[in-house]
Amino acid sequence: MKVNDVVTYEVDGPIAVITVNSPPVNALSNAVRQGVAGAVQTAIGDNGVGAMVLICEGRTFFAGADITEFGKPQVEPSLRNLQLIVENATKPVIAAIHGTALGGGLELALVAHYRIAVPSAKCGLPEVNLGLLPGAGGTQRLPRIVGVEKALDLITSGAPVGARAAKEMGLVDELAAEGNLRADAIGFAQRLLDEGRPLLKVRDRSEKLDEARGKPEIFADFRKANAKKFRGFKAPEHIIRCIEAALEKPFDEGMAYERELFNELQADSQSAAQRHVFFAERQAAKIVGLAADTPTLPIAKVGVIGAGTMGGGIAMNFANVGIPVTIVEAKQETLDRGLKIIRGNYETTAKKGRMKPEDVETRMGLLTGSVAMEDLADCDLIIEAVFENLDVKREVFGKLDRIARPGAILATNTSYLDIDDIAAATSRPESVVGLHFFSPANVMKLLEVVRTKDTRPEIIVTAMKLAKTIGKIGVLVGNGFGFVGNRILAARNAQADRLVLEGATPWAVDKVLYDFGFAMGHFQMRDLVGLDVGWNREATSSANVREILNEMGRHGQKTKGGYYDYDENRRQTPSTVAMQVIEDFAAKQGIARRAVSDEEIHDRILFAMVNEGARILDEGIASRASDIDIVWITGYGWPKYRGGPMFWADLQGLPVVLEKLKALEAAHGEAFSSSPLIERLVAEGKGFKDA
Ligand code: T1G
């Protein structure tokens, strides 16, 4: 019978089956919680019922609390009150798990008396990814089942575990046959009844906690080992404290402590930022302005031109998902070197246990090397990753135009050149698209999909779908200098370079950005990438500090010197040589150096970036402000707990941003003349999220 729109109740002999069907992921919405509570109470009151199975239809068991309900008035039963109904049921409740039992979904399974899962199922507590902690007893119950150390890992990483591993650690009691979960769960429930198995409550178990008692070093060591990873994030430390409480406090006090710390996190801007990022990532995949039925083109074979760092990394993305790739290089020795590097990358990954050794050959078998572009004639998608020079790229596309089959997608990996100019070298500009990968291309998640004024809709849809296929976060952007990411980076570059001429040091600039939450500072990143990227050795003319450092052979980490000096372990120290170059250049430019405060560094860099983001949005180069956030979080390391430059600006309030820009413009010139979009939004009392 239907309990409500999303929950049904039926009886199979002495077993009640409570089925939830609330697409897309059976999130524990108000209706789901009300329906499950009603069904459990019906089963308890039904004398013919001896036990009950709680199961979901669709793609997964409950994937957590319904994040869309956060911040809205609480509707009973709350998740915790639903848990009390289940945990105190007078008849066994068996949670039948498939898909991903995550967050509140797993926490609900933890108050069931038994858990059965299909082998393909996964269980996890990923709340930390939302700037939260498991707020329905996960920090108190999980350690009681899997032990403190495993609980610390699982909850602070948010990583799911597969059903087999879950069974080994006692998180799951029984494995069902794949595709036979309902029947096996009913059979398991029947067996529990026949055997008169007890109503086990996780909250009453303490054997696993006892193993950790009197070992404070477990927590001290864990904090130390993860200090770098957790830096700046609030949720991980709150999680650790809750697990410590599980050890030190009686269950109900531990639950109260967990609730207190959960509420703190939920009210914090870090969680708002990370929930924003969760939805923004998914929004980015949705294309604005194209017909929903735009067809996707089949990509059975990919061609890559260039076997260097970028070309090799790009090729790996496709081989990793079983798509054959032909890699073309001009010279055999360069091709061989490129293929060797790819093989080396795979072997290293296999040695680290992150891929099966036999997959090295499987993936290398998908890569065909060639020194003839003619071998790309049968490819559905061809990506060029040759030298970042417009003439070189135009020449390549001219040849491709003659070789590629009709309908093939011709993609450029350029990071800032005008793709319309590249497309104009072909007779088929509608087939040209930008696929801007970030180095290392086989690792970095971000892929800027750059549409030109002519790119066909099918190619846009195909490219965005392909991004997901190869495990990237695709963001559709418009054509223009630097697209979205590099254009904002250029704004940051300009301010950082100007600041060090005016009196700041590179290390002061880097510290401000590091303390803001970036993994590394601006000049450290330049040294890492290499100062000579994009440097023209023939035409160099000491036009700026960076050129002068390059002319001195100071190309960054790879030459043990750039803005910093590096020892054999790549540990950096501020370089007096670089500082002297800066001071001399400033003097030559007639710039009187002065003391520059950290606050000025902070404001000039961050508000210049926000202003450039607003211009990008106003020009339609980005479809959404949140797309800009995703680009800078996934491609450039903007701290996730600050939500991205546009979210961060909204958090400051656009009136504050506008005021800052006007003050900065008065002091430092037109680079800070505010985007008209900001002025419009302020006048309308809106934020970037409304743009
Ligand atoms: N609530 C609401 N909507 C959700 C959702 C959730 N928990 N999870 C996913 N969706 C939507 C998502 O926005 C998208 O919507 C669609 O489902 C498909 O998602 C008390 C407080 C389950 C692994 O963090 O990790 O429980 O765009 O594109 O790639 O302690 O979704 O189609 O309109 O990601 O197959 C904890 C988050 C919540 C899990 C499926 N749970 N979700 O991945 O599909 S907090 C999570 C995921 C909590 C308790 C705490 C993934 C997935 P639309 P998708 P997918």
TrEMBL record:
Pathway: Lipid metabolism; fatty acid beta-oxidation. Residues 301-478 form the 3-hydroxyacyl-CoA dehydrogenase NAD binding domain. The keyword Transmembrane helix does not apply. InterPro entries: 3-OHacyl-CoA_DH_NAD-bd (IPR006176), 3HC_DH_C (IPR006108), 6-PGluconate_DH-like_C_sf (IPR008927), ClpP/crotonase-like_dom_sf (IPR029045), Enoyl-CoA_hyd/isom_CS (IPR018376), Enoyl-CoA_hydra/iso (IPR001753), NAD(P)-bd_dom_sf (IPR036291). The keyword Cell cycle does not apply. Coiled coil: none annotated. Residues 482-566, 602-686 form the 3-hydroxyacyl-CoA dehydrogenase C-terminal domain. SUPFAM superfamilies: 6-phosphogluconate dehydrogenase C-terminal domain-like, ClpP/crotonase, NAD(P)-binding Rossmann-fold domains. Pfam families: 3HCDH, 3HCDH_N, ECH_1. It catalyses: a (3S)-3-hydroxyacyl-CoA + NAD(+) = a 3-oxoacyl-CoA + NADH + H(+). Gene3D superfamilies: 1.10.1040.50, 2-enoyl-CoA Hydratase, Chain A, domain 1, NAD(P)-binding Rossmann-like Domain. Its main location: other. Keywords: Fatty acid metabolism, Isomerase, Lipid degradation, Lipid metabolism, Lyase, Multifunctional enzyme, NAD, Oxidoreductase, Peroxisome. It is found in: Peroxisome. In the N-terminal section; belongs to the enoyl-CoA hydratase/isomerase family. Belongs to the enoyl-CoA hydratase/isomerase family. Monomer. This is 3-hydroxyacyl-CoA dehydrogenase. The lineage of its organism: Bacteria, Pseudomonadati, Pseudomonadota, Alphaproteobacteria, Sphingomonadales.
